[in-house]
Amino acid sequence: MTDGGSAADRLLAQQARRESNARTYPRSLPLAIERAEGAIVEDVDGNEYIDCLAGAGTLALGHNHPAVVERMEALLDRGRAIHTLDLTTPVKERFVDELLESLPDEFAETAKVQFCSPAGTDAVEAALKLVKTATGNRSMLAFQGGYHGMTHGALGLMGDTAAKEPIPGLLPDVHHLPYPHAYRCPFGLGGEDCWQTSAEYVERTLSNPDSGIVDPAGMILEPVQGEGGSVPAPDDWLREMRRITRERDIPLIVDEIQTGLGRTGELYAVEHADIVPDVMTLSKAVGGGLPLSVVVYDESLDVWEPGAHAGTFRGNQLGMAAGAATIEYVLEHDLEAHAAAMGDRLRARLEETAATFEAVGDVRGRGLLLGMELVDPDGDPDSLGHAPADGELAAAVQSAAFDRGLVVETGGRHGSVVRFLPPLSISPSRIDEIGEIVHESVRAAVAGERDRTEAPA
């Protein structure tokens, strides 16, 4: 949608010269944004895109939602403080009220809230410190395919080894357990056998005195692995993890940073399985699009000394105002139910695409946290008969979608999963438009791949 002399190209070239090599999204999404509203972003050249990334799930209500903007403007117009460390304000107390109101009742009844530095990974770091302090233990249990952030401790929990290899020195003592990936089962099993075997493996490992795992300080898991490829954990497996950890007095940390506040079709993804964690990490949507992260945990774990965990920007009042407005809007308009309905609608369209093209191996996810795995139909299948993941084809689909006015990201194994995280407030007509663009983008990417492989050497 841009030529070599466009304003977007000039800004992107300037960004490349001045920003670090660690930048990610501009490499696959050559976008220089001028303005945004709802599910639409407009670049500096006037081109419009449907935003199916939405700040990696941060923008639950989309860009510049009136309820959020009005709350922030009111704070500024009244001369309120915007930075208060952990000193309280009416704005902060209102946020906590709304947050606790949104949480499952049994969890909220005994909950304590710790405000952290702004990013979700800071909440994960705080959760690690919390359970290690409370238990006196040092090792952690995490899962293959998991993603919990990019700071040192959170990085140690990650299942993707590629991100960890360049890091010098020892990462934290973490033991990675098999996550029940129905399509790419670590045990090569199908159906219920996969999650049942995963649960049995976890329980036997923790019961084995020769496992090499010292008493864990906690277990952390995502009820839907987001960056890992939109992989939902079966409800029965989540219930088994809760039973196993409770019987062994291992605090269970549920990372709801991407799933929390309605994205999966329930306010919190743990509600699908009706489990109550010991600790929940939250960020993204609860800040209403602004930087904010919290750890919510059972009061029995509240053994920190004053000042044991801090963060200069834990008093971000604009984030709390935006977050409270977002939570209120989600609750008042039952956006979790809307997300479930829109997720079903989009998934049905993606499954039509999967039925049309062999290169779409799997469609999965929950609510408006969906993924579509691209595969190489000519490659050697695995033990379940699934073709190998094709990250290059997924990148080609992403690029074709961008050319057609749709912003999506990729993730999962080898970057082979095209992921969908639109605002929870998205309309049915936009969902249909997304489905149509994705269908045509897969068609174009498959045709391009065919032309490449058939071209004479």
From TrEMBL:
SUPFAM superfamilies listed in its UniProt record: PLP-dependent transferases
Entry-linked Pfam families: Aminotran_3
Keywords from the named record: Aminotransferase, Pyridoxal phosphate, Transferase
Signal peptide: none
GO molecular function ontology, one term from the record: transaminase activity
Cofactor(s) it depends on: pyridoxal 5'-phosphate
PROSITE patterns referenced in this protein's UniProt entry, alphabetically: AA_TRANSFER_CLASS_3
Keyword Endoplasmic reticulum: no
InterPro entries tied to this protein: Aminotrans_3, Aminotrans_3_PPA_site, Dat, PyrdxlP-dep_Trfase, PyrdxlP-dep_Trfase_major, PyrdxlP-dep_Trfase_small
Coiled coil spans: none
Source superkingdom: Archaea
Family named by the database record: Belongs to the class-III pyridoxal-phosphate-dependent aminotransferase family.
Entry-linked NCBIfam families: dat, PRK06938.1
Protein name in UniProt: Diaminobutyrate aminotransferase apoenzyme
